[in-house]
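User: Design a sequence. Structure:
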């Protein structure tokens, strides 16, 4: 296994890709967040390659480590190819220069470095390789299909590089080219690229509004990145004496400035943490140093140039403090799985399949990371009610709200989802939420005293070291249950952040009331303009139901049986418009769950992200 930041959790995604989607690229999973569209909004190509390796007989742990490190190992080759294409005098210098941002110590989460790879940014590293290849190809403007292919695989690795590439092309054309034939070339490449990945990009764009906005802060004040490390000062000195009249130099200058421009100008509400664009600044400023006229001149003397190049290279190596990278590699790629963790896995696998959620604590690492519980679907047959790729799931707000209710350090949960109202979070509300969301088990530590004192609601199953305790939640509801109250339609227009705030308000103040959103006004339900008007909800007329409704869940189908016709039912699975109902109606509710009204005693939901 692997660990460290988001890195370990990506293994769950690889397992799902290999076991459920391959040779396809994306689909639905119930292993995280009460259901989510996996790889519809995150980037499938590295995981698809990993799944291919698994199908060829390579163990999953080994396949995962290959795809994690492959982008890093390939960077010098991609940089050399880039240098050849942009007509750099000595492409080998660019291949060497690209190793410096890889070793950049301050860069742990913005991407483009070994440290950030160990934090989980390996898909970004893949996209940087393809970005260099793509930028090399469009410099010479000879091959439309090959350029489009490079752009396509870059998009399937990380969309941030697509934003960088498009904005770079616009600036480069306006500043240095301004020729119609060049513009036509770019348009042709763009059109062919769109056709190549239309099967992925169209659903990505079509369903974008059904993702979660994490409310990232702008991060435009992180100027310490520019002067706190000596590696950058050496780069600044070297670029003073570059060849300022070279087209190659200006290609790199504009690429360098483009990263800064995107960091400072791109709107905050795009769902991107803007400091990630600094990764492109670091990469291209180090590549720009290779245009230093003195470095170029010494390349003419083979022995002398070898000595100077090695001194240049190892000076950066010493500044980079590679021992910290070695330590992080050992932790990330060869973590120790404690006896407690192994015992938890054994115990969970002896319990009936269900949903599980835990108390979050930065100081507790169940599977070699505070976020190690996201690996539950890898080690056990259970589903975890949080996960990675927070933006991809519609139920992220209510998942993390419930996690905060289990947690002593609820503010640490707020670091991942910042809209949680810390002052209103208490353990007292946890039970009704766990029960409604059909969460079978909880694993808690510092809040164990509370749950142990409420044995009418929680059954202690096992105690572990580090004061961890596993509980079963008593009397939970089924994943499908008839609604207690009559549904209402909230006609208020909402952007994503407003919808998420309203979902949290629903959990805290309007719980159990089916509030339908994104629905055309219908005479079937009462309409309200604001949640504040929902002061007197009407109970749904109680019927004598002969049997409890049943649900069967597979990869792309949900089958509901033993239903009462024309009765609203909660289906406690994340809503997504790609679920197409048969023999009934499907509605999106405010908390992000499904509400169905069957026409008869049976109903089907089929997941069809491409419309078929």
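Assistant: Done.
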């Amino acid at each position: 296994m692997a660990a460290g930041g988001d890195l370990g959790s990506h293994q769950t995604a690889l397992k799902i890709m290999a076991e459920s989607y391959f040779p396809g690229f994306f689909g639905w999973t119930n292993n995280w967040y009460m259901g989510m569209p996996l790889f519809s909004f995150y980037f499938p190509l590295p995981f698809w390659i990993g799944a291919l390796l698994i199908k060829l007989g390579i163990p999953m742990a080994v396949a995962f480590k290959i795809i994690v490190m492959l982008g890093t190992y390939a960077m010098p080759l991609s940089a050399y190819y880039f240098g050849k294409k942009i007509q750099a005098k000595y492409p080998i210098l660019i291949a060497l220069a690209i190793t410096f941002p890889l070793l950049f110590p301050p860069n742990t989460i913005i991407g483009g470095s070994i440290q950030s790879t160990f934090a989980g940014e390996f898909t970004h590293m893949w996209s940087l390789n393809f970005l260099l290849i793509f930028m090399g190809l469009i410099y010479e403007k000879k091959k439309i299909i090959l350029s489009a292919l490079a752009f396509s695989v870059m998009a399937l690795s990380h969309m941030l590089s697509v934003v960088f590439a498009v904005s770079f092309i616009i600036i480069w054309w306006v500043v240095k080219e301004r020729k119609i034939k060049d513009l036509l070339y770019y348009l042709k490449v763009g059109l062919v690229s769109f056709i190549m990945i239309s099967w992925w990009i169209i659903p990505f764009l079509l369903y974008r509004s059904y993702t979660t906005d994490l409310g990232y802060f702008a991060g435009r004040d992180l100027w310490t990145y520019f002067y706190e490390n000596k590696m950058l000062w050496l780069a600044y000195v070297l670029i003073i004496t570059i060849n300022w009249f070279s087209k190659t130099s200006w290609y790199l200058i504009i690429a360098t400035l483009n990263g800064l421009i995107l960091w400072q100008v791109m709107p905050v509400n795009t769902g991107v943490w803007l400091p990630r664009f600094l990764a492109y600044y670091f990469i291209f400023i180090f590549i720009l140093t290779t245009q230093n006229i003195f470095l170029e001149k010494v390349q003419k003397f083979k022995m002398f140039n070898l000595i100077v190049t090695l001194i240049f290279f190892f000076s950066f190596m010493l500044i980079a403090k590679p021992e910290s990278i070695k330590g992080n590699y050992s932790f990330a790629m060869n973590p120790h799985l404690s006896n407690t963790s192994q015992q938890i896995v054994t115990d969970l696998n002896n319990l009936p399949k269900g949903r599980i959620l835990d108390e979050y604590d930065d100081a507790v690492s169940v599977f070699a990371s505070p976020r190690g519980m996201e690996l539950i679907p890898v080690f056990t047959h259970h589903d975890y009610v949080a996960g990675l790729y927070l933006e991809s799931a519609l139920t992220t707000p209510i998942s993390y709200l419930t996690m905060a209710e289990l947690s002593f350090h609820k503010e640490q949960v707020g670091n991942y989802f910042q809209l949680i109202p810390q002052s209103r979070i208490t353990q007292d509300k946890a039970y009704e939420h766990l029960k409604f969301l059909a969460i079978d088990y909880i694993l808690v530590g510092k809040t164990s005293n509370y749950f142990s004192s409420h044995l009418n609601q929680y059954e202690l199953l096992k105690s572990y070291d580090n004061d961890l305790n596993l509980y079963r939640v008593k009397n939970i509801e089924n994943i499908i249950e008839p609604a207690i109250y009559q549904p209402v339609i909230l006609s208020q227009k909402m952007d994503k952040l407003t919808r998420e705030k309203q979902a949290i308000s629903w959990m805290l103040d309007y719980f159990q009331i089916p509030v339908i959103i994104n629905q055309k006004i219908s005479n079937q339900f009462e309409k309200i303009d604001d949640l504040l008007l929902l002061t007197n909800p009407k109970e749904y007329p109680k019927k004598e139901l002969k049997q409890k409704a049943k649900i069967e869940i597979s990869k792309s189908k949900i089958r509901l049986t033993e239903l009462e016709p024309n009765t609203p039912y909660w289906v406690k699975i994340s809503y997504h418009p790609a679920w197409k109902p048969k023999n009934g109606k499907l509605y999106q509710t405010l908390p992000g769950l499904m509400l169905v009204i069957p026409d008869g005693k049976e109903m089907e939901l089929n997941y069809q992200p491409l419309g078929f």
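Residues 560 and 603 are 5 Å apart (CA to CA). DSSP finds 24 helices and 18 strands in the chain.
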